[in-house]
Amino acid sequence: MESKNPVFSRQPNGYQQAWGSPTPEQLQGMYDRPAYAPPAQRTMTIDDVVVRGFITLGTLVVSAAVAWALNLGPAALFVGVITGLVLGLIISFKQSTNPVLILGYSVAYGVAVGVASHVYNDLYHGIVFQAVVGTALAFGAMLAVYSLRIIRVTPKFTKFVIAAGLGLMGLMLVNLVASFFIADGIGIRSGGALAYVFSVAAILVGCFFLLLDFDSVEQGVRAGAPEKYSWLMAFGLTVTLVWIYLEILRLLSYFTSND
Q1: Using CA atoms, how far apart are residues 234 and 103, in angstroms rounded to an integer?
Q2: I need a surface site. Which of 2, 18, 48, 117 has the fewest CB within 10 A?
Q3: What's the rounded Cα separation, in Å, for the pair 33 and 39?
Protein backbone atom coordinates (compact mmCIF):
# COMPACT_ATOMS: atom_id res chain seq x y z
CA MET A 1 0.00 0.00 0.00
CA GLU A 2 1.28 3.41 -0.98
CA SER A 3 1.74 5.69 1.95
CA LYS A 4 0.40 9.25 1.64
CA ASN A 5 2.19 12.36 2.83
CA PRO A 6 -0.01 14.02 5.47
CA VAL A 7 0.83 17.41 3.95
CA PHE A 8 0.60 16.72 0.24
CA SER A 9 -0.90 13.88 -1.68
CA ARG A 10 -0.43 13.29 -5.39
CA GLN A 11 -3.48 14.18 -7.49
CA PRO A 12 -3.84 14.04 -11.23
CA ASN A 13 -3.55 17.84 -11.48
CA GLY A 14 -0.77 18.36 -8.96
CA TYR A 15 -0.54 18.54 -5.21
CA GLN A 16 -3.51 18.88 -2.89
CA GLN A 17 -3.48 21.89 -0.50
CA ALA A 18 -2.10 21.25 3.02
CA TRP A 19 -4.53 20.61 5.78
CA GLY A 20 -5.72 23.86 7.44
CA SER A 21 -3.88 26.09 4.94
CA PRO A 22 -5.68 29.24 3.63
CA THR A 23 -7.19 29.18 0.18
CA PRO A 24 -5.90 31.56 -2.52
CA GLU A 25 -8.98 33.74 -1.96
CA GLN A 26 -8.23 33.94 1.77
CA LEU A 27 -4.60 34.83 1.07
CA GLN A 28 -5.71 37.64 -1.23
CA GLY A 29 -8.09 38.93 1.45
CA MET A 30 -5.32 38.89 4.02
CA TYR A 31 -3.09 40.82 1.63
CA ASP A 32 -5.75 43.45 0.93
CA ARG A 33 -6.61 43.95 4.60
CA PRO A 34 -5.09 47.08 6.25
CA ALA A 35 -2.05 46.42 8.39
CA TYR A 36 -3.77 48.17 11.32
CA ALA A 37 -7.43 48.80 11.88
CA PRO A 38 -8.01 51.58 14.46
CA PRO A 39 -10.63 50.86 17.10
CA ALA A 40 -14.06 52.26 16.42
CA GLN A 41 -14.64 55.61 18.16
CA ARG A 42 -17.48 55.67 20.68
CA THR A 43 -20.24 58.12 19.86
CA MET A 44 -21.76 60.66 22.21
CA THR A 45 -24.82 59.80 24.29
CA ILE A 46 -27.23 61.82 26.42
CA ASP A 47 -25.64 60.26 29.51
CA ASP A 48 -22.23 61.57 28.42
CA VAL A 49 -23.60 65.11 28.23
CA VAL A 50 -25.32 64.77 31.62
CA VAL A 51 -22.13 63.54 33.30
CA ARG A 52 -19.95 66.24 31.69
CA GLY A 53 -22.60 68.81 32.52
CA PHE A 54 -22.53 67.86 36.20
CA ILE A 55 -18.72 68.02 36.20
CA THR A 56 -18.58 71.41 34.44
CA LEU A 57 -21.38 73.03 36.42
CA GLY A 58 -20.20 71.38 39.64
CA THR A 59 -16.72 72.84 39.15
CA LEU A 60 -18.25 76.28 38.69
CA VAL A 61 -20.40 75.93 41.82
CA VAL A 62 -17.47 74.74 43.94
CA SER A 63 -15.30 77.62 42.69
CA ALA A 64 -18.10 80.08 43.47
CA ALA A 65 -18.50 78.64 46.96
CA VAL A 66 -14.75 78.96 47.64
CA ALA A 67 -14.73 82.57 46.39
CA TRP A 68 -17.75 83.32 48.59
CA ALA A 69 -16.19 81.71 51.67
CA LEU A 70 -12.90 83.55 51.19
CA ASN A 71 -14.80 86.80 50.57
CA LEU A 72 -12.61 87.68 47.60
CA GLY A 73 -12.70 91.29 46.47
CA PRO A 74 -13.32 93.17 43.19
CA ALA A 75 -9.88 92.22 41.85
CA ALA A 76 -10.83 88.53 41.85
CA LEU A 77 -14.12 89.42 40.15
CA PHE A 78 -12.28 91.31 37.40
CA VAL A 79 -9.68 88.56 36.86
CA GLY A 80 -12.37 85.87 36.82
CA VAL A 81 -14.50 87.70 34.25
CA ILE A 82 -11.59 88.46 31.92
CA THR A 83 -10.10 84.96 32.19
CA GLY A 84 -13.48 83.31 31.70
CA LEU A 85 -14.27 85.57 28.75
CA VAL A 86 -10.99 84.76 27.00
CA LEU A 87 -11.34 81.01 27.59
CA GLY A 88 -15.00 81.14 26.52
CA LEU A 89 -14.13 82.86 23.25
CA ILE A 90 -11.35 80.36 22.52
CA ILE A 91 -13.65 77.41 23.18
CA SER A 92 -16.51 78.91 21.14
CA PHE A 93 -14.56 79.95 18.06
CA LYS A 94 -12.35 76.84 17.95
CA GLN A 95 -15.20 74.55 18.99
CA SER A 96 -12.69 73.07 21.40
CA THR A 97 -13.53 69.91 23.32
CA ASN A 98 -10.48 70.22 25.58
CA PRO A 99 -11.63 69.48 29.16
CA VAL A 100 -8.81 71.62 30.59
CA LEU A 101 -10.05 74.75 28.80
CA ILE A 102 -13.68 74.05 29.64
CA LEU A 103 -13.03 73.36 33.32
CA GLY A 104 -10.71 76.38 33.39
CA TYR A 105 -13.64 78.49 32.22
CA SER A 106 -15.77 76.98 34.98
CA VAL A 107 -13.20 77.86 37.64
CA ALA A 108 -12.69 81.42 36.36
CA TYR A 109 -16.37 82.25 35.99
CA GLY A 110 -17.15 80.41 39.22
CA VAL A 111 -14.88 82.84 41.07
CA ALA A 112 -16.60 85.79 39.37
CA VAL A 113 -20.08 84.45 40.12
CA GLY A 114 -19.14 83.74 43.73
CA VAL A 115 -17.84 87.26 44.33
CA ALA A 116 -20.84 88.89 42.60
CA SER A 117 -23.29 86.68 44.50
CA HIS A 118 -21.67 87.57 47.81
CA VAL A 119 -22.00 91.29 47.07
CA TYR A 120 -25.67 90.95 46.08
CA ASN A 121 -26.44 88.83 49.12
CA ASP A 122 -24.90 91.41 51.45
CA LEU A 123 -27.10 94.10 49.91
CA TYR A 124 -30.27 92.02 49.58
CA HIS A 125 -30.29 89.12 52.01
CA GLY A 126 -31.65 85.85 50.58
CA ILE A 127 -31.60 87.01 46.97
CA VAL A 128 -29.00 84.44 45.90
CA PHE A 129 -31.14 81.50 46.98
CA GLN A 130 -34.09 82.97 45.09
CA ALA A 131 -31.96 83.38 41.95
CA VAL A 132 -30.72 79.78 42.18
CA VAL A 133 -34.29 78.49 42.51
CA GLY A 134 -35.39 80.70 39.61
CA THR A 135 -32.58 79.36 37.41
CA ALA A 136 -33.46 75.76 38.26
CA LEU A 137 -37.14 76.41 37.46
CA ALA A 138 -36.20 78.04 34.15
CA PHE A 139 -34.06 75.04 33.21
CA GLY A 140 -36.82 72.57 34.13
CA ALA A 141 -39.47 74.57 32.28
CA MET A 142 -37.41 74.83 29.10
CA LEU A 143 -36.56 71.12 29.23
CA ALA A 144 -40.29 70.35 29.44
CA VAL A 145 -41.07 72.81 26.63
CA TYR A 146 -38.44 71.19 24.43
CA SER A 147 -39.42 67.61 25.28
CA LEU A 148 -43.09 68.28 24.56
CA ARG A 149 -42.19 70.17 21.37
CA ILE A 150 -44.23 73.18 22.50
CA ILE A 151 -41.58 75.32 20.81
CA ARG A 152 -39.79 73.72 17.89
CA VAL A 153 -36.19 74.65 17.18
CA THR A 154 -36.22 75.54 13.49
CA PRO A 155 -33.51 77.33 11.46
CA LYS A 156 -35.66 80.48 11.55
CA PHE A 157 -36.06 80.26 15.33
CA THR A 158 -32.30 79.70 15.72
CA LYS A 159 -31.49 82.80 13.67
CA PHE A 160 -33.94 84.86 15.72
CA VAL A 161 -32.46 83.74 19.05
CA ILE A 162 -28.87 84.35 17.95
CA ALA A 163 -29.78 87.79 16.58
CA ALA A 164 -31.58 88.65 19.84
CA GLY A 165 -28.57 87.52 21.87
CA LEU A 166 -26.17 89.61 19.79
CA GLY A 167 -28.54 92.56 20.09
CA LEU A 168 -28.61 92.30 23.89
CA MET A 169 -24.82 92.09 24.08
CA GLY A 170 -24.55 95.07 21.78
CA LEU A 171 -26.85 97.11 24.04
CA MET A 172 -24.81 96.15 27.09
CA LEU A 173 -21.63 97.27 25.35
CA VAL A 174 -23.23 100.59 24.35
CA ASN A 175 -24.47 101.05 27.92
CA LEU A 176 -20.99 100.38 29.28
CA VAL A 177 -19.40 102.96 26.99
CA ALA A 178 -22.16 105.51 27.66
CA SER A 179 -21.77 105.08 31.41
CA PHE A 180 -18.35 106.74 31.17
CA PHE A 181 -20.02 109.94 29.97
CA ILE A 182 -23.63 109.75 31.26
CA ALA A 183 -24.89 108.64 34.65
CA ASP A 184 -26.56 105.18 34.37
CA GLY A 185 -25.59 104.95 30.69
CA ILE A 186 -28.62 104.40 28.49
CA GLY A 187 -30.66 103.19 31.46
CA ILE A 188 -30.81 99.44 30.88
CA ARG A 189 -29.08 98.75 34.21
CA SER A 190 -30.33 101.69 36.29
CA GLY A 191 -33.25 99.95 37.99
CA GLY A 192 -35.89 101.94 36.12
CA ALA A 193 -38.64 100.73 33.81
CA LEU A 194 -36.22 100.19 30.92
CA ALA A 195 -33.99 98.07 33.16
CA TYR A 196 -36.95 95.83 34.04
CA VAL A 197 -37.77 95.32 30.36
CA PHE A 198 -34.14 94.62 29.48
CA SER A 199 -33.65 92.07 32.26
CA VAL A 200 -36.88 90.23 31.42
CA ALA A 201 -35.88 90.17 27.75
CA ALA A 202 -32.39 88.89 28.68
CA ILE A 203 -33.88 86.09 30.79
CA LEU A 204 -36.25 85.07 27.99
CA VAL A 205 -33.43 85.02 25.44
CA GLY A 206 -31.35 82.93 27.85
CA CYS A 207 -34.24 80.45 28.11
CA PHE A 208 -34.45 80.32 24.32
CA PHE A 209 -30.72 79.58 24.19
CA LEU A 210 -31.40 76.60 26.46
CA LEU A 211 -33.69 75.27 23.72
CA LEU A 212 -30.85 75.67 21.22
CA ASP A 213 -28.52 73.83 23.61
CA PHE A 214 -31.00 70.95 23.99
CA ASP A 215 -31.39 70.76 20.22
CA SER A 216 -27.61 70.70 19.73
CA VAL A 217 -27.32 67.77 22.11
CA GLU A 218 -30.11 65.86 20.38
CA GLN A 219 -28.70 66.54 16.91
CA GLY A 220 -25.20 65.55 18.02
CA VAL A 221 -26.40 62.23 19.43
CA ARG A 222 -28.48 61.56 16.33
CA ALA A 223 -25.57 62.34 14.00
CA GLY A 224 -23.21 60.06 15.94
CA ALA A 225 -20.85 62.81 17.10
CA PRO A 226 -17.72 61.56 18.91
CA GLU A 227 -17.92 61.22 22.68
CA LYS A 228 -15.53 64.15 23.25
CA TYR A 229 -18.14 66.60 21.94
CA SER A 230 -20.16 66.02 25.12
CA TRP A 231 -17.69 68.43 26.78
CA LEU A 232 -18.62 71.15 24.29
CA MET A 233 -22.33 70.54 24.86
CA ALA A 234 -21.80 70.77 28.64
CA PHE A 235 -19.91 74.04 28.16
CA GLY A 236 -22.80 75.54 26.18
CA LEU A 237 -25.32 74.59 28.84
CA THR A 238 -23.13 76.04 31.60
CA VAL A 239 -22.68 79.36 29.80
CA THR A 240 -26.43 79.69 29.29
CA LEU A 241 -27.25 78.83 32.90
CA VAL A 242 -24.75 81.40 34.19
CA TRP A 243 -26.35 84.01 31.90
CA ILE A 244 -29.84 83.23 33.23
CA TYR A 245 -28.70 83.16 36.86
CA LEU A 246 -26.99 86.56 36.70
CA GLU A 247 -29.95 88.17 34.94
CA ILE A 248 -32.43 86.75 37.46
CA LEU A 249 -30.16 87.98 40.26
CA ARG A 250 -30.15 91.49 38.81
CA LEU A 251 -33.90 91.53 38.18
CA LEU A 252 -34.62 90.43 41.76
CA SER A 253 -32.35 93.17 43.04
CA TYR A 254 -34.59 95.77 41.36
CA PHE A 255 -37.65 94.47 43.19
CA THR A 256 -35.80 94.21 46.49
CA SER A 257 -34.33 97.71 46.24
CA ASN A 258 -37.78 99.14 45.49
CA ASP A 259 -39.16 97.46 48.59
Answers
A1: 10
A2: 2
A3: 15
CA distance 238 to 64: 14
Q: Could you read off the pLDDT of 75-97 as tens digits, one per residue? A: 999 999 999 999 999 999 999 99
In angstroms, the Cα distances linking 30 to 23, 34, 195 are 11, 8, 72
pLDDT of res. 187: 87
Beta-carbon count within 10 A of 60 CB: 25
Contacts of 28 (CB under 8 A, 6+ apart): none
Using CA atoms, how far apart are residues 202 and 171, in angstroms rounded to an integer?
A: 11
The closest alpha carbon to 201, from 157, 178, 167, belongs to 167
How far apart, in whole angstroms, are the C-alpha atoms of residue 91 and residue 160? Answer: 23
Question: How are beta strands 10-11 and 14-15 bridged, if at all?
Answer: antiparallel
124-151 per-residue burial string, b: 16 or more CB within 10 A, e: under 16? beebbeebeebbeebbeebeebbeeeee
Does pTM top 0.85 for this prediction?
Answer: no
Nearest to 111 by CA among 70, 76, 87: 76
Amino acid identity, residue 201?
Answer: A
Q: How far apart are CA 215 and CA 238, in angstroms?
A: 15
Give the pLDDT confidence score for residue 5 in this predicted structure: 46
CB-based contact 208:164 (threshold 8 Å): yes
